[in-house]
User: What shape does this take?
Amino acid sequence: MAPCSPLLTSDPSRPPRFLPALFCIINCLLLFACGNGENNVTSGLASQTLHWGNGAEPQELDPHIVTGLPEHHIIVGLLEGLVLKDPATLEPIPGMAESWDISDDGKTYTFHIRANARWSNGDPVTSADFVWSWWRALQPALGNLYAYMYYPIKNAEAYATGKLDDFSEVGVKAIDTKTLEVILANPTPYFLQLLDHYSMFPVHRATIEKFGDPSERGTRWTRAGNFVGNGPFILKQWDLNRLVMIEKSPTYYDADKVRLNAIRFYPTENVSTEERMFRAGQLHVTGSLPADKIAVYKKTNPQALRISPYLGTYFYRINTTVEHLTDKRIRRALAMAINRQQIIDTVTKGEQMPAFTFTPPNTLGYTAENGFAEDLETAKALLAEAGYANGEGFPPTELLYNSSEGHRKLAVAIQQMWKKHLNIDISLNNQDWKVYLDSVTTGNYQIARAGWIGDYVDPNTFLDMWLTDGGNNSTGWHNDEYDRLISEAAPRAKERTQRYAHFRRAEALLLDAMPIIPIYTYNSIHLVHPNVKGLPSNILDYALYKQMYLSEE
Amino acid sequence: MSSLDQNNSPEINSTKPNHINPSKSSAFEEKGSSLWRDAWHRLQKNKMALLGLVVMVTMCIVALLTPWITVYGYEEQNLVLGASPPSAAHWLGTDTLGRDLLTRILYGSRISLAVGFIATAVALLIGVIYGTVAGYMGGRVDAAMMRLVDILYALPFMIFIILLMVIFGRNIFLLFLAIGAVEWLTMARIVRGQVQSLRQQEFVEAAVSIGLGPWAIIRRHLIPNTLGPVIVYTTLTIPNVMLLESFLSFLGLGIQPPQSSWGLLISYGVETMEEYPWLLIFPGLALSLTLFALNFLGDGLRDALDPRAAKD
Amino acid sequence: MARFILIRLLQAIPVLLVVITVTFFLVRLAPGGPFSAEKAVPAEVLKALEARYHLDQPVINQYFSYLGDLARGDFGPSFKYPGRSVNEMIAAGLPATAELGLYAMCFALLIGASAGVIAALKPNSAQDYIPMSTAMLGICLPSFLLGPLLMLIFGVWLEWVPVSGWGDIPGDKILPALTLASGYTAYIARLSRGGMLEVMSQDYIRTARAKGLPEWKVVLKHGLRGGMIPVIAFIGPAFAGLLSGSFVVETIFQIPGLGRFYVQAAFNRDYTMIMGTTVLFATLIILFNLLADIVAVWLNPRLRDLYRSGGA
Assistant: This one.
């Protein structure tokens, strides 16, 4: 082999030395870029600008169309409902309504709207705004996926599903410009909880009508410059996939208490990138944190790590119409043979709570009794009783999950636990999100990963999905007594204790039959910069921007 | 590896002669095989290429023997242990579920090497033949063939994959098919470009003038002369295919956990590269080693098979 | 030449039509509709949504009304983002992707081609191995690995450049462009090395040398012409492929580009968005392949006769 002939030889017959020159250029480019010592966190402190990792590009900012958390974070800055929640207690506090009366039978609510409540264009907020907005939210053509939030209101369901044409029969009425009367179908103890969900927010009629038919999806009224809201902030900028910026609204009734000047929401889809942005001082708050980073933050930066219980349950659905899974004993055996704490310690790593009930414990004071215990001996015995002693002859069974790193790891761990503890072989199958949804809703699965986040703080949001005709049941399980307890006994209960007793009986039925295997109760896991004040943790991950500010204190 | 050679060697065997006078077939073959031997001699002199060959052969043998030489099972977990750095018990450490990384890399090599070689071979076979025919025929045939390539390029790959998955379920052979179906397109374009320019050269015109049929010209003159770029592109395609496999497997086409492949190990390793760097470094090294070995081997082959090199 | 270009542009119409037709029906075959969501969609809402987007009509009617809209340049409303039209989203995303792709391709061409040429001048020497090995790193470090790695080193540890963003903070375009370039650099380096080696042993190069031209002139004037042919064949589709290829980089660095839409639209079953990006992608493929062919002719004068005489 020829001796080394480095690029540095000055032979005139050689071509110019592109390569070293190019590397120099690139290095220079890199060097030029350095030296911007000020990052978002430091600059945000002076200008009271909050930089928020928002998880995804919002689909829309129309409260009667959207369904997601990223949209929620933006919309609660732009619009405000009749009531708000105290982030510390989650009890209702005055919002657009400064007070309200509830009739003795619990069916009639009278809201008194603030005299100084105004839209961002100066118009007063009136009771007619609510009547019109709620009419709009129930228009079938709008395709509002959260129309069911209105169903406690008298005749709302009939109107939304087209069984009733006359909106004046729906239980919502403007008594005068600042008084709104709402009549419910049944006493609904959690009704006030619903009112600060964005699907029940008012929208500005004149603006929407200016940009099209009120029931038309996706008109331009939600664009920056067009949007008229009644919340503490106004929409300043909305660049697709880049940024949504909201700025303090001067017309907000509580404007002098709002301390943040602006919030910038970034569509941080990639959780690893989001975490690095946080570390580089580009974000104040992240939407999540990769599981393997939790231990690192615990060690190096514990004050930035926020872990708090969240109103949701991670579970596996079992298709009870599949031959061998119709047997309750097998379903219970599967549930008992999972070591949940070990999964939490090694896979999810976020201090989640092992779940032995479906409704998360202490949901507004409701805690169901554990429906089962982790017990290998009983699990083996149940399996043997069902005819598969030591797992022999257990039919091929498949565990379905939607493509995602976290679900995969959990499924692999559980697959091994079932193999080790019960000696049964379960194969794994992952599908892309939409195929997975299709498989689950059409019952084309055996065991499938699932998660459920409560829409509001009440056991009902967890338990009414297992009704026989519950749209989200998908397990084929049904029980008449359960249906009676949830849809008849509980709504008629006079007292909370009595109502919760019905729920407990129903949940006991559910957990005994075990069409689902609860795995753990969700935690919300965020990174929050220590400068961020006024962001308490709660099970809804609910923030009230008007209480937040940035300070180094 | 072997399938790649089998696909190529007949052509290589029969076609290394000078371009002017290939009419006497018996003499031709004799000379051809001696040239193949020449190429082998030249390859032997290229130490880097030889090293590449040794590495590749070793890898293939180890991959084949994996089930007999590993101590742990690839699915065997130790949740209490979790992710641990390299140690005496686990030479390359363990992953977050406490599975032995060395074992998983070895089992992964079976899948990665198989996918890499088979899918690339499929792409190679289709791409070379298609590109040569299009480039040689020229005119309307070429136009029609290349527009078909345009169409296939433009169809949305993701939808295609999702449909394959739904219609046929998961299947490792579908994986080969899906990857091969994508990778042959660029191969075809590269070969066609080469052939077009070769077609105008004197030796092809000479071959036409002595009455050689198009198939013979394609087989004996055009394909061998495109081997340079083809070998180069092939060595690049193999690692690419291995990484594409990880993407498809992640989506559910191809292999299912707890099985793994290098591409999957790397993409999981990336997620935890700060906490557990060994989970990225070792699978990454395995892939890089393969890639470099393939490249030196590819370069060596290219040089050894260069029809003109003999004259130097 | 003008005629050749005109014919190719005319050929584009049937190609596009086939792509549109196949994609249109393919996406509707994939399970899971655009409106399915984690929480079951009530029947009446689904009906309203389908009526809104005309999905309640026979597919064949949908197809023809889509073609009609398309003829007027209207890609329709996005299903996933109700307030956005596909036209608007493409207009918002294309500039970032195009800019990113342009930077990346420039980096890749400059570095890749120079490395390849330098290596080819002295094969199997340090001058060959060092630049080529450097270029090879581009494939060993796929963008899903290189991106986070660069981000970690230069964004988080050294704090030289922002971690993510596009045009917000100075310097935020450097890392994504480098990341996207790396893979292409390796390809181009390999292909140009192969191409150069092929060309440098050709007779006309010997002739040029014999005439006493200085070596660098031989290389730049005569060698590059032929040596770049495989690179050109690769670059055409590669350039168009940046649209889908930049998906990973766009996601990692949060660039508001089109690549994200292109891939996500498939997962979201956002029919109109899939169609819109596919039509755009197909157009780009056709244009860049045409461009590549034109450059190939320009590089290889002998091909000109082919195009002048043939109908290609």
In short: The two ends of chain B are 30 Å apart (CA to CA). Chain B touches chain C through 63 residues (CB under 8 Å). Residues 1-31 of chain B have pLDDT under 50 and may be disordered.
